[in-house]
Amino acid sequence: MSIFTGSCVALVTPFKDGKVDFESFHKLIDWQIEKKTDAILIAGTTGETSTLTDDEHLALLRDAGKYINGRVPFVAGTGSNDTAYSIMLSQEAEKAGADACLIINPYYNKSTQRGIIAHITAIANAITIPVIIYNVPSRTGMNISVATIKELSKIPNVAAVKEASGDISQVTEIARVCGNDIDIYSGNDDHVLPIMAVGGKGVISVSANIIPEDMHELVASFMAGDIERARELQFKTNLVNLAMFYETNPIPVKTAMGLMGLDSGEMRLPLIEMEEANKAKLTADLKTYGLL
């Protein structure tokens, strides 16, 4: 049930006057597809999903299904620390035409490894489209273990894991233990090449919001056997990849998009404008990269 190979942009959500700006949302989708992005994630962490109202979240997923319209795979962010709520979002995403759902393990209440298995199993069993497990301990406070991912990989529609633990040893073990039972996507833009080297299929990317072609080419080069070109692009893109975390994501990427003339809109509290010293560093990096 492979969902995509390549670079999936974790798209920002543009806000204007406190509301979702669907006109800008459509422009960003069109630009991403034009610039060779291989898939689009809507309402992920970078999309400020934690501050979307229920109506906004559902409206984004429904609008994305209609507007993307099969041009590239559409991944819906439907994770929550409330299993029943995540089931509802995932079912609505499937109705909206999503090709897969991205499911985070419970944050704040956290659960145990057995609880994570029960949580993701319940969601996967409630839908027919593929599930991508999202492991990001820095956000959830709980790492999903290799053994847990192995157990979840037995579920027919649990198709992939987005690995953002930052632990290459763990990713290598997932690849060794799970083999072809689950696809691996890098959740960190600076780890794309190392993860592909152990069998990963690509990346779910923050940086692709501003450098979609380079992130696409990084993966495509590796898959075509041009390891040297992939290495060059990993080193090149790391200037941007690291800059995207000068402050909490998505503050830097929305700031960068604004500087580049891409209408990413406002940030929503509790996220605020980037500090001037960090913005100056970011601006310098964008200039060095050739984006300004």
TrEMBL record:
Pathway in which the depicted protein is active: Amino-acid biosynthesis; L-lysine biosynthesis via DAP pathway; (S)-tetrahydrodipicolinate from L-aspartate: step 3/4
Keyword annotations of the record: Amino-acid biosynthesis, Cytoplasm, Diaminopimelate biosynthesis, Lyase, Lysine biosynthesis, Schiff base
Top EC class, one word: lyase
Gene3D superfamilies tied to this protein: Aldolase class I
Main location: cytoplasm
EC numbers, comma separated: 4.3.3.7
A GO molecular-function annotation: 4-hydroxy-tetrahydrodipicolinate synthase activity
Catalytic activity field: L-aspartate 4-semialdehyde + pyruvate = (2S,4S)-4-hydroxy-2,3,4,5-tetrahydrodipicolinate + H2O + H(+)
Site (Part of a proton relay during catalysis): 45, 108
GO biological process, one term: lysine biosynthetic process via diaminopimelate
This protein's GO CC annotations: cytosol
Subcellular location: Cytoplasm
Family statement drawn from the similarity comment of this UniProt entry: Belongs to the DapA family.
Subunit structure: Homotetramer; dimer of dimers.
PANTHER family, sorted: 4-HYDROXY-2-OXOGLUTARATE ALDOLASE, MITOCHONDRIAL (PTHR12128:SF66), DIHYDRODIPICOLINATE SYNTHASE (PTHR12128)
HAMAP family: DapA (MF_00418)
Reported function: Catalyzes the condensation of (S)-aspartate-beta-semialdehyde [(S)-ASA] and pyruvate to 4-hydroxy-tetrahydrodipicolinate (HTPA).
Protein name per Swiss-Prot or TrEMBL: 4-hydroxy-tetrahydrodipicolinate synthase
Gene source species: Acetobacterium wieringae
